[in-house]
Amino acid sequence: MTLMTNQDPQFSKVRENWVTTWSQAQKGIGFFPVNDNNHTVAYEILIQNTGDRVALTLGNYYSEVSLSIASLTVSLDKESGFKPVTVNGSEAFVVDDRGLVKTDSIALLVTSGTAIYVRIYYPDQPQVNRAISGNTFATHAERSIKGDFTKVDSMQQDDCYIDVITDDAYAMSFADGYESQKKRFTLTLQGVDVHTKVAGGTIVAFGDSITEQGHWVRPTQEKVSEKLGAGYSLVNAGISGNRLLRGFADLPRRTQFFGLAGIERFAHDVFEVNCHVISVVIALGVNDLHQPGTEAQFSIDELPTFNELVSGYQRLIKVAREHGSRVFLATLSPFIGYTVAAKNEEKEAIRKQINEWIRHNREVAGIYDFDALLSDPTDCTKANPLYDSGDKLHPSPEGGLAMSRLINVTAFNA
């Protein structure tokens, strides 16, 4: 993997005054019928921090081939004022396979609570080189008519969101099933960094769908802004379906739509994508227990042991320490009833063991007992109806707000 860094000395040498105001964890969407070659894609990104410069992060993490970007622009206005963003001084550049690019910084006065607008133009390149690293659960994306609209004012829209793909067997096999999903992809754009007036740092929430859905992350972002101040941010590195120890056993990298295993993606999604990470919240492991045996792609043989899960958490803690970051662990909330039963008694026994290990862990800066909060007081194997979304696994917005109340954000910078 090639990591391209910003050429601006201010960006590279004074990292503590740079914060990642928005980022997402990518996954492999190579079997989805999306091909943006010779298209311009526009994104609206909400900003947590006030600052005078921005830089973008572009990812190609799940691809085995390089990706070309012909033009990249940014503006404070959705319809006008777009300025070119460069990489090592060039407006056109390549993102290597499995790689990411940090752009040069650009002068842009951004304000907390507002948005910036980013446009990416992909040149006409072979379909095998199309963008396949992205997400379906992030920010709103608009696709233009074919052509480069990165530097014009208004961007005319049409309904041409999906191109026919004939040279990708996985894309062809799934093409008919994802018409309703075609507008939801956030491709290539992986992060936005802001140069702030005051020093601070980035906090990363690392987890699965309970994290990615944002119900506990969003209110905690508000607390970070209120309690820690303008130099701090909290970003979401959750991936729905993600497991700590495993990805899909029989799918190639480009189609890992639940993401690579947490132990594999952790260093990249937390420390390579984001600037000056001071703390990370690890809320991952529920899928390792509930998924095995529930569907054909999840063999019951993939059910991990207590020791295997502990080893996985310890690997993440070690990586975070090597990067000088504090670690906070969350206990695993209940999942019985979410899907078909498969060795539920054995799974519950492991979940209880892991939660006790987390509660008594002295290697980390703190723990959040999401299990105690989200479990039914009358049956700890099931979700508390007060906080359940209705599916027996994911918390409701009210549940997420209650989870956020457990988090003392001042500890992130203690």
Structure at a glance:
With 414 residues, this protein is α+β, with helices and mostly antiparallel strands. The protein is 21% helix and 26% strand.
Average pLDDT: 89
Kindly, what is the distance between the CA atoms of the first and last residues, rounded to a whole number of angstroms? 34 Å
Q: Helicity level, as a percent range?
A: 10-25%
Note the overall shape. Answer: globular
User: Structural class of the secondary structure composition?
Assistant: alpha+beta
How many E-type strands? 23
Which parts are unreliable, with pLDDT below 50 for 5 consecutive residues or more?
A: 1-14, 160-166
Largest sheet: 6 strands, mixed
Classify the beta-strand content into a percent band.
25-35%
SS field, number of helical segments: 10
Oligomer: single chain
Rg, Cα atoms, Å: 21 Å
What would you say this structure looks like, in words?
This protein is α+β, with helices and mostly antiparallel strands and 414 residues long. Helices cover 21% and strands 26% of the residues. The chain is built from 10 helices and 23 strands. It has helices spanning 9-13, 169-174, 209-212, 217-227, 262-272, 286-290, 306-322, 344-359, 370-374, 397-405, and strands at 3-4, 18-23, 27-28, 39-46, 51-59, 67-69, 71-75, 83-84, 93-95, 100-102, 106-110, 115-122, 133-135, 141-146, 186-187, 189-196, 201-207, 232-236, 277-283, 326-330, 366-368, 375-376, 379-383. The strands form 6 sheets. Strands 1, 2, 5, 10, 11 and 16 form a 6-stranded mixed β-sheet that branches. A hairpin with a 7-residue loop joins strand 7 (71-75) and strand 8. Helix 5 (262-272) runs parallel beside helix 7. The protein is globular, with a radius of gyration of 21 Å.
